[in-house]
Amino acid sequence: MATIAVIPDTKLQCAHCGEDCPDNKIVLENNHFCCEGCKLVYEILNENGLCDYYTLNENPGQSQRITVRKDKFAFLDDKKIQQQLIQFQDDNQTHITFYIPHIHCSSCLWLLENLHRLDAGVQRVTVNFTRKEALVIFRQQETSLRHIAETLTSIGYEPYISLQDLRQKKPRIQRDLVYRLGVAGFCFGNIMLLSFPEYFSNYGYSDEKMNHLFRWLNLSLSLPVFFYSAQVFFRSAWGGLKTGFLNIDVPIVLAIIVTFIRSLTDVFSEQGAGYFDSMTGIVFFMLVGRILQDKTYQGLSFDRDYTAYFPIAVSVLKNGQEVPTALPDIRNNDTLLIHNQELIPADGILVKGNAIIDYSFVTGEAVPVHKATGEIVYAGGKQLEGNIEILTIKEVAQSYLTSLWNREELRAPENKQVSFIHMLSRYFTWVVLSIAVIAATYWWAHDPSRIWPAVTAVLIIACPCALLLAASFTNGHILRILSRRHLYLRNADAIERLATIDHIVFDKTGTLTGKAEATISYEGPILTPEKLMAIGTLAAQSNHPLSKMISSFCGKDERLPVRNFRSIEAKGISGWIEYNFIQLGSAAFIGAENNTSTDGSTVYIKIDGHQAGRFIIRHQYRSGIQSLLQQLQHQYSLSLLSGDNDAESAYLQKIMGPSASLHFAQKPADKLNYVVSLQQQGHRVLMIGDGLNDAGALKQSDIGISLTENSNNFTPASDGILEAAELIRLPRLINTCRNNRRIIIITFIISLLYNFIGLFFAVQGSFSPLTAAILMPASSISIVLLTYGLSEWMNRS
Amino acid sequence: MSVIIILLGASLLVAIFFLAAFIWSVRNGQFEDNFSPAHRVLFETKPAETTCKSGNACTNTNCKSRICQHN
Questions:
Q1: Cβ of A106 and B39 within 8 Å?
Q2: What is the arrangement of strands in the sheet containing A685-689, beginning at the earlier edge strand?
Q3: N or C: which end of chain B has fewer CB within 10 A?
Q4: What is the DSSP letter of A648?
């Protein structure tokens, strides 16, 4: 909700959360607090001798200004819900993992793992810091799930339990690749070591019998690499071939198989030691690259749909009783009780209460809407004032908002462009195959006995592993550089797609404008402090968000008498304050001329029948947005899709440039359709948004980036998550992605040089295992170093 | 020369031991969270405070507070 940023007159910091204290009234001993909530947490910790929490880190807490409703976790008493959340239970103990977004420092770790001092029923808490999860083991006879959740909440660590927890288990991280890497590394190292006598056998340092033993040992050590570690590449190549697509893994697998067979025949026919060291080395390095590239951000989730946003249960009224009910069990004609600040989970008819609903996350409208009894309220909105009751008309899965996820476009398998690396590898493969054929025909004419060694050697060299290494290591580095700048991409493909975009679509609310802040200003003849106070007091009578902003701007005096207060829906308010009759509202309500165009909502003032001035409320654009948009419009075509009205269109057109197309009052489906129409015109679209209303467009666009104020917040499914403060550095981030391609090509050219040296020996049929053993690690290691150096250098700050 | 074969066997066994140790540590989840264990060892396990810290003449024997207003 929009509020005014109040400049604190004191610079006191809250001892709990570190935020500025609005006044110095809330004190305990020598500690000041910003709110009663923070003070309460301090008291609880102090009572239990847990004040070390504050000595480990400064102000480790989270502001407690927004209090949590008392019975919020009542649903945890429900056996059915419990069973779906609990991981393990026997007669004595229960295991459950809570996701706690606030976990951020060692104080959190310490406090949570000392939870048994607050609740004796808790046996042990183990925090997984990277996943922000706490595994709680407790005795169900002594405490309950609900009590633990409430204890956690009381000390500022509210567990986040959403509908998604009911549906699916979180995917475990891939350990499989790491095992394969371990085995490959073990075999590679030992084969290297055992190959040394062979390399130097020409110098008379070894004896034949020993060499024989070493060869067989090498062979047996290479088996796990070929049959276990390299399986990843076999599978990927086979998958590509089945769909008729020649990906980069196909030539690599070909080279691995040829190397292995050649080495086997060498050893069995006692002609040489084979290339076991090269083969295992290649597999090892490629696995390292793949793991580096597939690094995932465990704390972030890129696949959230509405289920992660929705609560797990709501209160259903049955015979006047509040019954916590799991969301999937809500049926039509149930009466739901929606508490203050809670989400409406299903479409329904408002039957009781004063509904002021914030749809900004769902529709992008910045100003909350007022609904009267009998009107339809849609799922996804957040109730802002008091409790309301609604009668459901649609089940959760069929609601307006959730139906967006069931659209055909979003269900269809993704048909994204193919990486240029696969194209490059295809040319590369054909070139090397033709070299192999030429070498074969040459030796067929001159010395047929050398066809086999020459052709196999060429095919061993043909392995585009240098290209794969260059690509995977560069991708890995670039992902890391981007994450240092707070852009977290889902995977390496996203880098390439971000590099090639030509059209950027912005959402307005929450993206160009900050989420929380709006500014209010007064225009017109100067008002006396008494008049201002009177206006503020009148505005304080209304719950309308604009009124609230005006009253906190003007101040209010509760002692002033207010008479004949009237509020006219969607128009304005009026009333007598002491001896003045004041009217606040729209131009039509006041009878003022609405001839000036402003970039925001305007509230006109009339005092005793005379028009005084007006308040202008603007949503504050993020600082630096103007220069960002001016910079971007030279390179890309820009669009704006806003769920809001077009009040600020003139201003936006000015800063986004004349060629930008602006669309207002866009529903989520309109946004999605707009992105589709851009793509049909051949544009490659980057969508930047933040709310559920952008979710369809984010998913449909070539690359969708969702903004977040802090990475704990909900973000809709997307290809990347960007911290909001870094949005102004967007051109640089895109540039980093463009460098990615350059670096891959540069390193590839350098690796080609190594290949030429290898080919020089290979076509002559004199490619010795020693040359291979030197060339292979030398090229791999130099490529790894080069990609690292180049990515750091090209993206230095 | 047979000593080399013995040494070879021994070195391979040591290497296999380390491979097994690596696989065990991955399976055990030791690489999943590299923040908590490093900080956990630094926490002192002080005995839970049993007496009033406030310095007031507090009569409540269970009071552990620094700011208590008992008495």
A1: yes
A2: A487-489, A720-723, A703-708, A685-689, A503-507, A637-641, A661-663
A3: N
A4: G
A403 band by pLDDT with thresholds 50, 70 and 90? low
Kindly determine whether residue A186 and residue B36, on different chains, have CB atoms separated by under 8 Å: no
DSSP 8-state symbol, B54: S
Nearest to A768 by CA among A443, A463, A461, A468: A461
Tell me how close the Cα of A665 comes to any Cα of chain B, in angstroms. Answer: 45
**Is B12 within a domain?**
yes
Token couple for B25: 């540590």
CATH number at residue A121: 3.30.70.100
Give domain status of residue B65, yes or no: no
Contact call for residues A139 and A123 (beta carbons, < 8 A): yes
How high is the pLDDT of residue A392? 86
Nearest to A109 among B16, B31, B36 (CB): B36
Please tell me the distance in Å from B56's CA to the nearest CA on chain A. 13
The parent domain of residue A393 ranges over 310-404
Residue A252 CB contacts under 8 Å (≥ 6 apart), including other chains = A233, A237, A286, A463, A464, A465, A468
The chain-wide mean pLDDT, for chain A, equals 80
A209 to chain B: closest CA residue = B1
Beta-strand relationship, A335-338 and A93-99: unpaired
Report yes or no on A769 lying in a domain: no
Task: Tell me whether residue B71 is in a domain.
Answer: no
CA distances from A27 to A47, A256, A572, B47 (A): 16, 71, 40, 29
Domain assignment present for residue A331? The answer is yes
In a domain, A11, yes or no: no
Number of structural domains chain B divides into:
1
**Whether A48 contacts chain B with CB within 8 A:** yes
Quick check: A175 contacting B, CB < 8 Å?
A: yes
Residue B49's pLDDT band (boundaries 50, 70, 90)?
Answer: low
Evaluate whether residue A325 is within a structural domain.
yes
Specify the number of domains making up chain A. 2
B7 occurs within a structural domain: yes
A200 contacts A206 by C-beta, under 8 angstroms: yes
Residues of A in contact with B64 (CB under 8 A): 46-49
pLDDT tens profile A348-377: 888 887 787 877 666 666 667 777 788 888
Q: Is A492 on the interface with B (CB under 8 A)?
A: no
Model confidence pLDDT, tens digit, residues A308-351: 677 777 888 887 777 777 777 788 888 888 877 778 888 888 88
Q: Nearest-CA residue of chain B relative to A45?
A: B65
- Are B27 and A190 a contacting pair at CB < 8 A? no
Instruction: Quote the minimal CA–CA distance from B28 to chain A in Å.
Output: 11
Strands A321-326 and A122-128 turn out to be unpaired
Q: Round to whole Å and give the CA distance between A491 and A493.
A: 6
Residues of chain B neighbouring A173 (CB-CB closer than 8 A): 32
Count chain A–chain B contacts defined by CB atoms under 8 A. 68
Nearest-angstrom CA–CA distance, A498 and A42: 46
Residues whose CB falls within 8 Å of the CB of residue A224, separated by 6 or more in sequence, listed in order: A183, A187
Domain that residue B19 falls in: 2-32
Q: Do B66 and A178 touch (CB under 8 A)?
A: no
Of A404, A428, A447, which residue constitutes the final position of a domain? A404
Domain end point (choices A139, A161, A183): A161
The DSSP bridge partners found for residue A712 are none
Q: Which ipTM score applies to this complex?
A: 0.75
Which residues of chain B make contact with A29, given a CB cutoff of 8 A? 66-67
Contacts of B15 in chain A (CB under 8 A): 186, 189-190
| Nearest-by-CA chain A residue for B15 | A186
Return the CATH number at A381.
2.70.150.10
- Amino acid at position A7, single letter: I
Contact A568, A583 (CB under 8 A): no
